[in-house]
Amino acid sequence: MDDAAIPRNDPYASLRNTEFRYFLVIRFALIFALAMQFAIIEWKVYMLTRDPLNLGLIGLAEFVPAFCLALFAGNIVDKKEKRGMVLKCLAGYIVIGTGLFLLTWDDIMQGVPKSWVLISIYFLVCCGGVIRAFVSPSNFSLLGLLVPRSLYINATTWSTSAWQIGAIAGPALGGLCIAAFGVHWSMLLVLGWILVAFYCILQISRKPVHYKEMGETVKERLTKGLKFVWDTKVLLNAMTLDMFAVLFGGSVAMITIYANDILKVGPEGFGALRAAPAIGAFLTVMVLAHKPIVTRAGIKLLAAVFGFGLCIILFGVSRNFILSMAALFGSGMLDGISVIIRQTILQLKTPDDMRGRVSSVSSIFIGSSNELGSFESGVAARIMGPAGSVVFGGCMTLGIVITTYIISPAMRKLDLKA
After folding, report:
1. Comparing C-alpha atoms, which of 75, 356, 70 is closest to residue 218?
2. Quick check: 234 and 410 in contact, CB under 8 A?
3. Share of the chain above pLDDT 90, in %
4. What pLDDT band is residue 222 in, cutting at 50, 70 and 90?
């Protein structure tokens, strides 16, 4: 679509692109499947061990390969055709989903030592971390090739919306399916949605590769994304703020313990608690699709992350299911603002030939901090208890926001004008 032909202030402009609509289904189906799968794994592991540290190890198992391979993966993605990279990643997720389906089949696993089941689950989660190192920059790069630059803010908002819908439905349905059908058959539904994403990527045509060979050494190619982010202070500040907020403020890993041992609401309540942040975030991005944030984006980002920290503290001290739901819902609404702003900065500031590498750096800062944050929460819960772990993380988030406000004038002045 020609930029000149695009209606201004049209919140549905990017949705008129057929391939972008398929991309949104991929975004929804994949995060739906992975969020549901992660929630089911958390429940299964906690039922096997009753140890919060084992929940943290799930996040660590995915974090380590995703972190170690991020720069390498970004370089590969920049040099390869993006649709083909997403296709390969989805094929890998199909293999992992099949493995988890078999691992949770009690008739097959009867008599197998519990330790071997846990090790196998961690191994497949680790394999998922390898794939995630590639799928995040591949999806990010593909989005930039589907719509014109003038629609990046609009497309990013809808892409985040699709992600949030999947993040809502995945954990919620995961909890309901565990209660209704058990862990094993719930894993089959996960596999089915990955197949939906696989079908949709086949409907998108191959895209041009913008990578230009410049005679750089391997080290220069791998670190170019890091250098770009370091030199682009607004991007660096946004990533750093989000990274530490997610690292210390992430309470998702403790939701299993809250649902089972503190609030005593069972798998149905577990699914509702897991879905609450995503519901809040989804409502936020739907509003921002019609009223995008452009001016004073930095101040609004800082305020949102500060409010996120307060909501996490409230969740930590709550012993009432409704209040806990409200706190998580509020945290999701505020987190949605952060996601939209950061992703928009990435799309607007990143050159086409560096999208894979810059997105990989983003995954190091933010994506991997989700899993590392789960591990941090598990370790802190061992030391302070689950509630102490969550409250500590929320307090750390507040401190990080205050520090960022003081030391980063670039963040205070941030706008999103293209």
Report:
1. 75
2. yes
3. 17
4. low
Q: What is the pLDDT of residue 182?
A: 80
Q: Check if the beta carbon of residue 54 is closer than 8 Å to that of residue 366.
A: no
Pair 282, 193: CB distance under 8 Å: no
Q: What is the CATH number of the domain that holds 39?
A: 1.20.1250.20
The torsion region of residue 296 among left (phi > 0), alpha (psi -120 to 50) and beta comes to left
Kind and range of the H or E element at 185? helix 183-201
Domain count, the chain: 1
Find which of 123-127, 234-238, 276-280, 343-347 is predicted with most confidence, using mean pLDDT.
123-127
The rounded distance, in Å, linking the Cα atoms of 381 and 379 is 5
Q: How many CB atoms lie within 10 A of CB 249?
A: 27
CA distances from 223 to 170, 349, 404 (A): 35, 17, 25
Report residue 1's pLDDT band, with 50, 70 and 90 as the boundaries.
Answer: very low
Lowest mean pLDDT among 103-107, 214-218, 307-311, 380-384: 214-218
pTM comes to: 0.70
Residue with tokens 């809250």: 258
Reported as a pLDDT band with limits 50, 70 and 90, residue 25 is: very high
Decide if 7 is inside a domain.
no
Q: Does residue 193 belong to any structural domain of this protein?
A: yes
- Other CB atoms closer than 10 Å to residue 247's CB: what's the count? 24
Residue 324 counted as domain residue: yes
* Distance of alpha carbon 384 from alpha carbon 244, whole angstroms: 20
356 in a structural domain:
yes
* Residue numbers of the domain that contains 268: 14-205+218-412
Task: Please tell me the distance from the alpha carbon of residue 46 to that of residue 312, in angstroms, as a whole number.
Answer: 22
